[in-house]
## 1
Amino acid sequence: MKLPVVTGGAGFIGSALVRTLLEKGAPRVAVIDNFSSGKEENLAEVRENVDVYPVDIRDYPRLAPLLEGAPVIYHLAAIPSVPRSIQDPVPSHEVNINGTFHVLRAAVEGRAGRVVYAASSSAYGDTETLPKTESMAPRPKSPYAMQKLAGEYYCSVFSSCYGLETVSLRFFNVFGPRQDPSSPYSGVLSIFMTRLLERRPPVIFGDGEQSRDFTYVEDVAELCWKAARAPAEAVSGRVYNAGNGGRYTLNETWRLLCRMEGVEIEPEYGPPRPGDVRHSQADTAAAVRDLGHAPRFTFEEGLRRTLAWYRSVWQASRAS
Ligand code: UD2
């Protein structure tokens, strides 16, 4: 039997998606990951039900046979991060654009059922109004944003030219357990959580009044699953926001975390980051209408769960 495939399935979001697919009844899931940022341990609890292929999506000859006949390909493999793409644009270009092209080409040649593509809210750039709706003209501000947007365009062109079913989901600042805090390019909440547990101030880039629609990882995983099942005539070739619909500034978020932890720590401030979007908030109406999106986790609830996970890892590391 052909299995659903998750590219980037050993990553923080990919591994949450693998767990969701298994919970929803998939007997097994195939994971393609080059382990550049993915980790075996992210799949530890479900390892028996996962076929792991340590393959790079830039390697077409090795990639193509793995996608043959797949009912659904969830394409999450990517090199994320706005600042990393500005610092070092070549690797992210090769993975995010060429790698995505390889996945789509292999999906067509291998007669795969559907590609659900992890796009990014960064494609919007700075818009004049909020929330951001899919009909707004994209204005990417960084190589990463432009690469993710190119992937969306490729998806819709593959849908119209080759009849491949595709759905692009613009992820809005996903957070949750297993997000790796160890790189300067890590997602801000993973860094905030670690600093909070260590009782050290975070460094906020700019005035901290920039805002994000932080979206809990399990809600995004569920939406990916729904996007694979929505009727093709309604959704194929289209782009949807995958956000929560809320918006919090970094200053508010840090204060909220401090309150949860019962501490008061003043953040430090550094220069604003080039390519940074000022405000981000998803209009979820289209995803609700066409995909049945129904986020289950408020921001606070997501933060509580995430903080509990970081605490358990932190305590285990101190005990050893
Ligand atoms: C972008 C996308 C997001 C996803 C992500 C993947 C937007 C609005 N969002 O996230 O959907 O595709 O890229 O990488 O474009 N910051 C600090 N201190 C730190 C780290 C970050 O202040 O130690 C700030 C950073 O300047 C930014 C905010 O926190 O204003 C969020 O940064 P991030 O790297 O977590 O994510 P972002 O918004 O670039």
## 2
Amino acid sequence: MTTPHKATMSFSDGTPSVDFPVYKGTIGPDVVDIRKLYGASGKFTFDPGFLSTAACESKITYIDGDVGELLYRGYPIEQIAVNCDYLESCYLLLNGDLPNPSQKKDFEHRVTMHTMVHEQMSRFFQGFRRDAHPMAILVGCVGALSAFYHDSLDIQNPEHRFISAIRLVAKMPTLVAMAYKYSAGQPFMYPKNDLSYSANFMRMMFGTPCEEYKPNEVLVRALDRILILHADHEQNASTSTVRLAGSSGANPFACIAAGIATLWGPAHGGANEACLQMLDGIQARGGVAKIGEFVAQVKDKNSSVKLMGFGHRVYKNYDPRAKLMRETCYEVLAELGLENDPSFALAMALEKIALEDDYFVQRKLYPNVDFYSGIVQKALGIPTSMFTCIFALARTVGWIAQWNEMISEPDQKIGRPRQLFSGPVRRDVKPIGNR
Ligand code: CMC
């Protein structure tokens, strides 16, 4: 919505000043529409890392990083986490509002009917080394889904986009569990349709054909909460990647594979794995007694050591997801009789010290969701190398909702950032003997 205000950019080099419209969202900062800047002045804006740039308009997820608020379609994450399950959250993100009971039943049915992957997919797994990182397998296998589902690849057709969304949400747990089973050398488990989304995933991960798997309700709820908390997070690096890939008209499976690749990095989805490795490292060096030494290293500008699970580009307050994950952490450890788990005790001690230390306080570095999600996943029996896969499984719905929103825009354009070129100016190639 255009506000009565405008922004004027003036230049000291004689270029005439340019006026820009200012738009107001429903919440959040106003934005200055600088699209005509280049045409009017011959200049670009420069904003590597998108520190001040809104790359799209969206109605899906809103974060207020200063107060530590996260809303999915307007609903606070704290309310969704205690009142809804993951599939309801998926419905909300994809459709704009929470389902009523019959919509919920229908959605669950549709997802359940798509949980199997094409049988040929299992052969792909055989081509990977058993010790391959499961994220490497997942990037490949999700991209490969586009080779199987030609019947839903017309991205201009809303019905096709919907089927692809359902397929992705439904098949991700199956593929993630297959990646795990392959690394463990165990047979793949087919999905079981009478289980909930999260219970089915746990069975495909931890069950074997040798005996009946009985899901533990507390642990299933914990996993479901991990999925809810990671389902979407506005225009982060992987979501922006999915949008950029999708802006070229690439199919949704290829776009989600691109998102998974971006998520893998330790500054993004790889942080929960890195966080647990950090805790294990401190534990190995002496545990709580060594925290001071470790924190000193983190603060040393000459070291590249970071306190993993701390800090966020947007949250300059306690990440609301971290609070919920901390609660789940207590529940899971109590259920499993692991209240004295050394990683958890270490994490609590580290959090306390960091929250009081000037370095972290001044920079507004608070625990993020990954600080606790690794401990919960470890307690659930999920190996560290699988943590980012679980994140990818959860985030797939957010990626696909954002992709769908972008494709549905009538004036959608291919994403094409500009650059400040600082390389050599035009020069001539010398014959090889003269170089
Ligand atoms: N440990 C130590 N110092 C830190 C940390 C940290 N985890 N995070 C930021 N800083 C310092 C940083 O060195 C800088 O200091 P200075 O002003 O003296 O140069 C200051 O805090 C500002 O940091 P920044 O690098 O400008 O912040 P950013 O917004 O670019 O980076 C971040 C955000 C998440 C990449 C970063 O905080 C980080 O690397 N954290 C650890 C990794 C992590 O936990 N990532 C998970 C994010 S949550 C999951 C998700 O949404 O993907």
